[in-house]
Design brief:
By secondary structure, this protein is an alpha/beta fold. The protein has helices spanning about 10-15, 35-45, 55-70, 80-90, 105-110, 135-140, 145-155, 160-175, 180-190, 190-195, 205-215, 220-230, 245-260, 280-285, and strands at about 25, 50, 70-75, 95-100, 235-245, 275, 295-300. Helix 7 packs across helix 11. The structure holds S-adenosylmethionine.
């Protein structure tokens, strides 16, 4: 049975973005709407909640939420960078824009979608099942150098070269069709001592992360979305992003630091870009996925001149 996605850092997100009655909020990564539901309660019947997600499964959760909340709601099933672009063209002004990056528990638990190294399933990993590129194509058509680079860059995997070599060796005999075959190739690439060093963890974790990020162009979307999200915010608008690995967090951090550089507020003014918030120990215990969550938020004090 699929778990319902437990929203990560939800209390902190609400506290830092402080959604108020009548405000307009954009949730760029709706998922199962855990964060959105809390926001909807805050903005009330005079508020507007725009939700974006490229996964059709998220749209089903949205329809349920839209029936139950009092605020005006709208769903855009598309990449959030495209969604934000569309909202900018419509001249929407938002009080809050936030992203909760990565994948949801429902996506991981839907075995047939191939996101998880724990279940054997077709190699897929597409958040938007309508897109063409999937994990099978990457694993079977990228050359050894491209694969090694991918595992190094997006998985930060120290065994990238060995794993790429083994994948190419195996697929030369027969295409790698399933997550199980990919896990076997990864494990087969590593000497026993290296395999043992993972203890209870899986040596496939980093490679799966890298392939998923590439299939869904996750970093490109984030790079395109950050300036658009900022542009949508009206004066005093709040931005927040929850990320789950350093590649995302670094981008958000750099983006906010650049916004802060232009800041001309007096030194005793309340901070315009706040630091990092990490999950509380209780939350990590309740929700293992929360462990790597990092929340960064910022307030837009004024439009750039
Ligand atoms: C971590 S989940 C969000 C969970 C949500 N905050 C909740 O409380 O249920 C991330 C969601 O963002 C979506 N997503 C990730 N990247 C996206 C992108 N570039 N464009 C649109 N949706 C995206 C995924 O499909 C997934 O449903």
């Amino acid at each position: 049975m699929n778990r319902v996605h437990v929203p990560v850092l939800a209390g902190e997100l609400i506290e830092l973005t402080a959604p108020a009655a009548g405000e307009t909020v954009v949730d760029c990564t709706f998922g199962a709407g855990g964060h959105a539901r809390l926001i909807a309660d805050r903005i009330g019947s005079s508020g507007t909640l725009v939700c974006i997600d490229r996964d059709p499964a998220a749209e089903e959760h949205f329809e349920e939420l839209a029936r139950e909340v009092a605020c005006e709601t709208r769903f855009l099933r598309m990449d959030y960078a495209e969604g934000l672009d569309l909202l900018r063209d419509e001249r929407l002004s938002a009080d809050v824009v936030y992203l909760d990056l990565g994948i949801s528990s429902m996506q991981v638990d839907a075995r047939e979608r191939g996101f998880s190294y724990s279940y054997d399933a077709p190699l897929d990993m597409r958040m938007d099942p309508g897109q063409q590129l999937d994990a099978r194509e990457i694993v079977n058509t990228w050359d050894e150098r491209q694969l090694a680079q991918l595992f190094r860059r997006l998985g930060e995997d120290p065994n990238a070269n060995r794993i790429a070599r083994e994948i190419v060796r195996r697929r030369d005999r027969a295409p790698i069709q399933t997550t199980g075959e990919l896990v076997a190739a990864i494990e087969g690439a590593l000497p026993a001592a290296v395999r043992r060093s993972f203890g209870g963890g899986s040596p496939a974790k980093r490679v799966f992360q890298a392939i998923r990020i590439a299939v869904n162009s996750e970093l490109d979307s984030l790079d395109r979305a950050l300036p658009l999200a900022w542009e949508l915010l009206r004066e005093n608008g709040r931005f927040a992003a929850i990320s789950f690995h350093s590649l995302e967090d670094r981008r958000v951090k750099r983006f906010l630091a650049e916004r802060a550089r232009g800041c001309i507020c007096p030194p005793d003014f309340p901070v315009c870009v706040c630091g990092r918030v990490v999950p509380t120990a209780g939350e990590i215990a309740d929700n293992p996925r929360a462990k790597s969550g990092r929340l960064r938020s910022a307030r837009k004090l004024r439009e750039a001149a």
